Target: Phosphotransferase
Amino acid sequence: MEHILGSNWTITPAGGSTGEAYYAQTEGKRLFLKRNSSPFLAVLSAEGIVPKLVWTKRLENGDVITAQEWLEGRELKTEEMKHPRVAALLSKIHHSSELLDMLMRLGKHPLTPDEILRDLKENQKVLDRLDPRIEIHQAIKYLEKNVHDVHHDVHVVCHCDTNHNNWLLSADDRLYLIDWDNAMVADPALDLGMLLYTYIPADYWKNWLQEYGVVPDSPMHERMKWYSVSQALSFIQWHQMRGEYDEATIRTEKLKTIMKRHDIIK
Model:
């Protein structure tokens, strides 16, 4: 990274799952750098969903480096996820034809419940040798039983990881949703289910979803339930495959909470 910016810049790793993100600063200037970000980042920046894209550079080896504004700010607290502005920004994302067109041009096809279930089952066959967990098998049985009831013909750009630490509130009070590496074209219930069941008190759902722009019905609730379980299971598997067993255990407890709330297990 130093040879791109010059020796007067201080560059430090920014963490994250890919290890390809960095903070860079010099006198009066600060940037957030990332290697091989998706071209999708430019559209997200233009829509004001992520901090401003400053420049993009292609290296001789084919790698692409992007630089964004490095903003003073903080991640949202869990209790702040019920704020109407969270619902409004997620609605903007889900209703953006520009985002959807760009992601489709990048080769993303609508993700179906059948594909999600197939991938979860294939991964679990491998992981069972390492750490079989009864809750995971109960979750998969629930997903199998209901997979044919949750098909939906409306697909949008889904972030796929609406965890509170991916919501950035800047010092000038602007809200962003960052870390788009796992974005997919899918049923909006994929984002809504995990967010609502993780963060929003049940008695606040109606108000929150009105701010988002929908009046939920029974089929929508069933789809959100299905996707909240499938996404929780996906995160458990991801941590298991990385050898992060403590985090997998934490995620398993969250899965159990979701399943108890759904009366899938007692």
Summary: The two ends are 52 Å apart (CA to CA). The mean pLDDT is 90.
